Amino acid sequence: GKGYDIQLPSKKFLITSQEDPKNLPEGAWLVDKLVPTNWQERNADIKLGYEISKNQNISLAYQGVRQQDVPRYDKLATKEFDKFLFDPQNRDLVYINYTNNQLSNFINALRLSLSYHSQKEGQKQQKAKSTSYKEVNDITNSKGVSIQFDSSIGKIQNLIYGFEVYHDDVD
Q1: What residue ranges of the chain have pLDDT lower than 50?
Q2: C-alpha 96: how far from its chain's center?
Q3: Alpha-carbon distance 149 to 100, whole Å?
């Protein structure tokens, strides 16, 4: 059957399976549609690979996402805000991977990754029944390196070891 969420001013909610609930707690309202939940988005992925030799490969990749006017549903449905949008939400990731599957007698394989991730996130906020309007922007740039080694330590045992390091610049 059809049911409703019943939102309460205390940010709690009730769920009912009644077709048309009559006795709502004071100040409560019905939520029968998830609105607003739409936004605009563009994204792209590209990856290039090159086989250096029989045992060595390198790949370069890019992923990008652009989103505008993304509503924060939980803040709007509870009527805490009249406007709460993420705009913009821009993300870019570039990485390069190098693999060598026959490095030495002790190290059977090496995987090396270098990455750069940039994220710009903005917010447009207006609390319910307020005339003040707030815009917030955060920019985060992350650089990373990851290295992994595979070594045989017995007839059927492998030792996998390595490390990852990331550095974030937040503005």
Answers
A1: 1
A2: 20
A3: 10
